[in-house]
Design a protein that fits this description.
heterodimer, A: alpha/beta, Spore Coat Polysaccharide Biosynthesis Protein SpsA, Chain A, eight-stranded mixed sheet, 8 strands, 58% helix, B: 316 residues, four-stranded antiparallel sheet, 24 strands, elongated
Chain lengths: 497, 316
């Protein structure tokens, strides 16, 4: 047992050591051998630009798919499907883990369910409250009064605090709700195989066609229980009201998810997602002691099914709130904390690595590939902005006159500048696409905001400095030092439009 | 494999191919190597970086006009000596020999091209014998020693105007110095000095408030402002004196019987007078350098600032 803990600890330390090692290596090299450091920086810069162009191309492809499927009648397509399971037999179990969110925030999410074009008598809505919030029962009563007759069932669950083996995480609450839902399904004689469970952030507003789209993919998939279903998260609920800093970060997050949807071998669940309830029961629900429950649930299933598990992208959006606060600095701090919580997804690496060590059925190549991809993505996240922004000028600063009199000393800033000019093209693509995923401008928002929303992209370098590498480096350092993070939900800011 | 995955695979390998094929050229260019397609070899080269003020000069490199204008860099040069000439209309050309070393950058980044017709403008509108520029106030003060007149103008000569007339001293003052606080100026000849207060608000001198200081019986060699802008340190052929700039001020002799003060220098920061004196005979040509501390903290000057009635003079 102690040995297992030691191995897990080694895997916890690995990402932080690698990230800091790379950064310190570059800094030391800038002192010791500025020429070699400059060469490595140029290689990294070139690699990064090729990567940016490549990923932007994937973004365009994903965006095209999103646009193509925007006006597709998923309900009609479901009707046309012929398979062992009839659409009418499929139930959707929608779980909203709630902590301190007010009924106003939840109202929008539930309203979007009510507006869904999917038959409401096939929707089971579970509001998963935390019992430690004294307002939970009052909030539950308010919402039950409003929605109790709208769906097949509208259930409120209250997750007791400090259950054995649990931490105060969203996953623990969702798991409690799923267990209560299981009891409900049993009482109604509904088979788990016919239930698709969706675990949504409390501010998630679904597209009216979402459940039809999900049902279509579930029914048309050859192995529907060996897959999670990932919609494209956008932060459109309050995107027009959000300040520039928050808007850029959230739009970029949506774009990153779109890009990931094109890289299926690396694609994992994120934020609001759906899966077979049978699978959820088989893998014993969400983790109750980890913060990144949304991605760990995928890895749990991956390990359970010996690597035969995938994420199917749904090119349909679910809209959430952009996180912002009353002042610029508070917004920056809030965004930083949210991104640090996302970066805490690095806890997946020790979980997966330990799981791979135990599992003998997953092919070794698959294990190495997936573990490497996971590690590489987190390490890259932690170091890229530091290398580009902070390490890049070091050879010139530390190299002295000898270095600056060398051809490479002269060429380093010019070549990196030239290479980064290429990124203007990709940046323009992002600006254009960002305009097209926006919802219509609310009437109370001035038309001049359209101009602001184009010009604001010039602050991207500043945004990169704040939320580029720092949150990931912070999260990895904490895990490396054994200072584990507590779950701290982002305070959502709902403005009634 | 789906169509998307095929497209993605193609894109991925295309990106890898671009990276691997482009990297050698980028790195070799960065390190100063030039690829020779005939010999299929890389040759280490050097480069020249040229920045001129003003920009836009034509570049003649070994007699050949280049397409680029300054600022520019001339790359992939084999090591050796090159002739460079920079030309810009209405400016003097710059030319020189440039040596290029392998893997090195020769920086010619401080080249100033001076105009053929200097941008010269006469500022004064009356005859003057001296001037002082007050950058802080953006004013120039002019002094006409023949007529004892003071003028002022803006830094470009605009707003040239008569300020007033100084009290007449004979012969007319040839030299003048401005106090550290820029509020007063002292004008002096060999026997007299005139201290005039400068008005800050309007940037004008007030000669009416001028004070005349007499140095009869000795020859005034130079005069310095103490850092307090209230005392003057006068070097005469007889010794060193300090005098307040108020009306009816009496000079206090600090040193006398100098054999013949030679060079002297006043350090305003530490209020110290450095002077060369010849203890023996002036014609011997050898002397001693003395430093007279006049700072406020020095006891001698503290006593001077609070002079006792019976202690007006201190001997060195």
């Amino acid at each position: 047992m102690s040995g297992q803990r030691d191995i897990k600890r080694i895997f916890e330390i690995t990402p932080g050591v690698l990230s800091w090692g790379i950064i310190l290596f570059f800094v030391a090299l800038a002192f010791a051998n500025p020429v070699l450091c400059a060469v490595l920086i140029i290689i990294f810069d070139f690699y990064w630009i090729i990567r940016t162009v490549y990923l932007t191309t994937l973004l365009i492809l994903a965006y095209r798919k999103l646009q193509k499927q925007k006006y597709r009648s998923w309900a009609g397509d479901c009707e046309a499907l012929s398979g062992p399971v009839n659409r009418k037999d499929v139930y959707h179990l929608v779980i909203f883990p709630v902590f301190k969110e007010t009924p106003e925030v939840l109202l929008h999410s539930l309203e979007s369910l009510r507006m869904s074009e999917y038959p409401k008598d096939r929707l089971i809505v579970v509001m998963a409250y935390e019992e430690r919030n004294p307002l939970s029962r009052r909030n539950a009563a308010v919402l039950e009064e409003e929605f109790k007759d709208e769906f097949f069932a509208f259930i409120s669950t209250f997750h007791p605090d400090k259950l054995h083996g649990e931490k105060r995480t969203k996953g623990a609450n969702a798991t409690w709700a799923a267990r209560r839902s299981r009891e409900f399904l049993d009482s109604r004689g509904i088979t788990y195989e016919n239930v698709i469970v969706s675990c949504f952030d409390s501010d998630t507003c679904v597209d009216p066609e979402y459940f039809a789209c999900l049902t279509y993919h579930f029914l048309s998939s050859p192995e529907p229980h060996k897959a999670s279903y990932q919609p494209m998260p956008v932060y459109n609920n309050n995107i027009w009201q959000a300040p520039s800093f928050a808007r850029i970060v959230e739009i970029s997050a949506s774009f990153c998810q779109l890009i990931e949807s094109m890289r299926l071998e690396k694609f994992v669940t994120f934020s609001s997602h759906s899966m077979s309830f049978k699978t959820l029961v088989d893998i014993e629900y969400w983790p109750v002691d980890m913060i990144s429950d949304d991605s760990v649930i995928y890895w749990k299933a991956f390990l359970h099914y010996n690597g035969d598990y995938r994420v199917i992208p749904l090119y349909i959006t679910v809209s959430m709130d952009a996180a912002y606060s009353s002042s610029f600095f508070k917004t920056m701090a809030m965004q930083y904390k949210q991104k640090r919580r996302w970066a805490w997804g690095v806890e997946n690496f020790p979980y997966v690595a330990c799981g791979f060590l135990k599992n003998k059925r997953i092919p070794l190549f698959t294990k190495i590939k997936r573990a490497f991809n996971l590690l590489e993505s987190h390490v890259t996240w932690a170091v890229w902005a530091v290398i580009l922004v902070l390490v890049g000028p070091l050879p010139l600063l530390l190299g002295g006159k000898v270095f600056s009199s060398m051809a490479i000393g002269y060429n380093l800033p010019k070549i990196t500048g030239l290479l980064f000019n290429f990124t203007i093209i990709t940046s323009l693509t992002w600006v254009i696409l960002s305009r097209t995923i926006l919802p219509p401008r609310p009437k109370e928002v001035s038309w001049t905001k359209n101009i602001v929303m184009i010009l604001e992209w010039v602050i991207v370098p500043f945004v990169i400095l704040i939320v580029g590498s720092a949150p990931a480096l912070d999260a990895q350092t904490r895990m490396m030092l054994g200072r584990y993070m507590e779950f701290n939900p982002t305070q959502k800011h709902k403005e009634v439009v | 494999m789906s169509k998307d995955q095929v497209i993605r695979g193609v894109l991925f390998y295309a990106a890898v191919a671009v990276f691997l094929s482009g990297l050698p050229f980028i790195l070799s260019s960065a390190l100063g190597y030039k690829f020779n397609p005939h010999s299929m070899k890389f040759t280490k080269t050097g480069l020249i970086s040229i920045i001129t003020d003003p920009e836009g000069a034509l570049i003649y490199f070994d007699g050949i006009l280049l397409k680029d204008k300054t600022p520019a860099s001339i790359r992939e040069l084999l090591p050796g000596r090159y002739d460079l000439r920079l030309e810009l209309d209405d400016y003097n050309f710059w030319s020189g020999e440039v040596f290029v070393e392998a893997g090195q950058v020769t920086r010619l980044e401080n080249i100033i091209l001076f105009p053929v017709r200097p941008n010269l403008k006469k500022l004064n509108k009356e005859k003057i014998s001296g001037f002082w520029v007050d950058e802080e106030r953006g004013r120039i003060y002019y002094f006409d020693s023949r007529e004892n007149l003071v003028y002022t103008s803006g830094l470009k000569g605009e707003d040239f105007q008569d300020v007033g007339m100084l009290p007449e001293i004979t012969p007319p003052p040839k030299r003048w110095k401005v106090s550290p606080d820029k509020k007063k100026a002292v004008f002096f000849n060999a026997n007299q000095a005139v201290v005039a207060e400068m008005e800050g608000e309007e940037g004008r001198a007030l000669p009416d408030a001028a004070v005349v200081l007499n140095f009869s019986g000795r020859r005034l060699l130079d005069i310095f402002w103490h850092s307090d802008s209230f005392h003057l340190v006068a070097v005469t052929d007889k010794g060193v004196e300090v005098v307040e700039t108020g009306a009816a001020a009496i000079p206090v002799t600090l040193l006398e019987h100098l054999k013949g003060a030679g060079d002297y220098y006043y350090n305003e920061k530490e209020d110290a007078l450095y002077f060369l004196d010849y203890p023996e005979v002036l014609s011997s040509g050898s002397g001693d350098l003395f430093k007279l501390d006049l700072s406020l903290k020095s006891s001698i000057f503290q006593n001077l600032l609070r002079p006792k009635s019976d202690e007006r003079s201190k001997r060195y």
